[in-house]
Amino acid sequence: MGMRALYFNKFGSVDVLRYGELADPTITASDVLVQTTYIGLNYADIYRRRGTYHIESHDPYIDGYEGVGTVVAVGADVTHVGLGERVLFVDVPLANAELVRVSADHIIQVPDSLSDQDVASIGLQGLTADFLVHDLAQNVAGKRVLVHGISGGVGQLLAQILVAQGAEVTGIVSTPAKQRLAQSLGVQQVFLRNTDWSTACVATFDLVFDGAGVTLPTSLRVLKHRGRVIFYGMAGGNPPAIDPVALLAESKSILTGDLWDYLDSFAARQTRSQRLFQYVARQQIKLNPSTIMPLAAGKAAHQLLESGKSTGKILLQPESK
Ligand SMILES: NC(=O)c1ccc[n+]([C@@H]2O[C@H](COP(=O)([O-])OP(=O)(O)OC[C@H]3O[C@@H](n4cnc5c(N)ncnc54)[C@H](OP(=O)(O)O)[C@@H]3O)[C@@H](O)[C@H]2O)c1
Known about the structure:
Shape: globular
Structural class: alpha/beta
Distance between the termini: 13 Å
Bound molecules: NADP nicotinamide-adenine-dinucleotide phosphate
Keywords: NADP, Oxidoreductase
Protein name: NADPH quinone reductase
InterPro entries: ADH-like_C, ADH-like_N, ER, GroES-like_sf, NAD(P)-bd_dom_sf
Helix content: 25-40%
CATH class of the largest domain: Alpha Beta
Order of helices and strands: EEEHEEEEHEHEHEEHEHEHHEHE
Organism: Paucilactobacillus vaccinostercus DSM 20634
GO molecular function, one term: NADPH binding
Radius of gyration: 20 Å
């Protein structure tokens, strides 16, 4: 029996991507097998295809680390997940396939109130936003907060969680269309990146969320004394070197974190995902429609994400059997 998957034999442009039948994954006693309904596409998948980012060793390579689906086989030692259960996984390799082997402690149970598509559209970006607020920043109520790239995948979810937690949120975006989108998230104000917004904002914010990287010097400039930058990514490029002595002189701190270091057990995944899903249930997070593309059209999906023209999540959908 074979499964259909998006795969590649060598690193390179979208032209290396192939779609076709491969052998089904085998599971051990501590795994479950998930039949995917939606698979999340992330920028990291493009780096992996190009060969510039860690990818699971496999012949052929299969990209993708997050998806939603139904458990279709359960290992002998697994007790907390059952056949037919709908589940999310966000840190599991070889996800660009109809069938994915998932270690049972990596399973995230999903509430009946959310569709597979909704859960997939929150996935990794939602858990990132949740850990940035609750693990790294903490106690954001009443704080003046700046979010770079607020209309991005993580940015939109982050903004809504911050607003729900009582923070006063300002965002930065690149275009008027993204500004309108961000303004609909309940935030205080949204500045266009190519304006001189930072001059009027020097020493203004208690917290700055910086997933753009190149913006780190600006983030420190607009931070109050005793403020904190939450530095979590380099979507715009690597930041320049920062002098810790200069930070000390103004009591400014940079906090960093990688979600994978926080998703370290079944319980950690459950607690964080339940907290996240509650924001959706209370309508504090509103989900924008995702772009759904067949897994077989993976090449076009990679092209769309690489073009920078997409807004919101791109989900890959396996063909139904
Ligand atoms: N630490 C973790 O555990 C973790 C986990 C997941 C993701 N991340 C990181 O989170 C970040 C966002 O990921 P995502 O999935 O939300 O990606 P995304 O949807 O592509 O969003 C990226 C955002 O970065 C902004 N941006 C790009 N270039 C910029 C520049 N030169 N200056 C300022 N802003 C710039 C864009 O803003 P405009 O569209 O307005 O230009 C866009 O909103 C990435 O850096 C990713 O690596 C970190």
